[in-house]
Design a protein that fits this description.
Helix content is 71%, strand content 0%. By secondary structure, the protein is an all-alpha fold.
Length: 255
């Protein structure tokens, strides 16, 4: 759905949009193709509403954001609406999930919110104009980090102050060294890589700790398989760029 809306926003033709889709979910090729063939975002969203896809709650949120998008040409308004609706569905599902799974899903939401707050801080530090989006809309629900704390970090005086606010919050302990390194370097790419690795290790750890009959073990398998794919992609990209095997190995995440 996100790819289709991005394609319409970019003015891509239906063939280009269809080529970028991965028809591995519940939606058939025919449904995806029909959405890609629509003349624009409003027509695609109207069709999504009539079909109730990807979920009724998500498409209602996207439809409600259409007016903001059309008046401001802010495509992120649609993406924020979709992300918040998806996070809200995850939050509701957490009430019935086992503790290990809850911790992973909350950490995934916290990572997304933390990076949004630090990108906001970086943009303001560089003197960029920052859109006046309310914190309740900017950050996803369902995480452990309160939106008020994330907003304070985003508006902190400097990187050290932003890191201190987050470290003092209910944060995953394994994330604190990465945040402290970010406060010295300001490199969000490295921080994101650090957080991704910690999250992967935590998720794959459910092989040993989760209920054998619950969702934790298949979730751990999915994370491990995704990590394998990312490692293969890293190896291929490194070889294509002429990197040495030693340098490529340093980029791999071996769980």
């Amino acid at each position: 759905m996100r790819t289709i809306l991005r394609g319409h926003y970019a003015g891509a033709d239906p063939g280009e949009i269809r080529a970028a889709l991965v028809p591995a979910g519940e939606l058939s090729d025919d449904v995806l193709g029909e959405l890609a063939n629509q003349p624009g975002i409003r027509a695609a969203v109207d069709l999504m509403v009539s079909w109730g896809i990807p979920t009724p709650a998500t498409v209602r949120a996207v439809a409600a954001a259409l007016e903001t998008f059309e008046s401001s040409d802010d495509f992120q308004a649609l993406e924020r609406a979709m992300n918040r609706a998806e996070a809200e569905e995850v939050r509701r599902a957490l009430d019935e999930a086992e503790p290990g799974v809850v911790r992973i899903l909350r950490a995934e939401i916290d990572q997304a919110n933390l990076l949004v707050a630090l990108r906001l801080h970086q943009a303001q530090s560089e003197g960029q104009d920052v859109d006046a989006v309310d914190s309740a809309e900017r950050f996803l629900p369902g995480g452990s980090l309160p939106a008020a704390v994330l907003a304070r970090a985003g508006h902190a005086e400097d990187r050290a102050a932003a890191a201190a606010i987050l470290v003092a919050a209910p944060l995953e302990a394994t994330w604190r060294p990465g945040l402290e390194r970010w406060s010295e370097s300001g490199d969000l790419v490295v921080l994101n890589d650090d957080l991704n690795e910690m999250l992967k290790r935590q998720a794959v750890g459910m092989f040993a700790t989760a209920d054998p009959l619950g969702p934790g073990v298949p979730l751990a398998y999915a994370w491990a398989k995704e990590n394998e794919v990312e490692n293969l992609r890293t190896i291929g990209a490194g070889l294509a760029a002429g990197m040495s095997p030693q340098l490529i190995e340093e980029e791999l995440v071996i769980l």
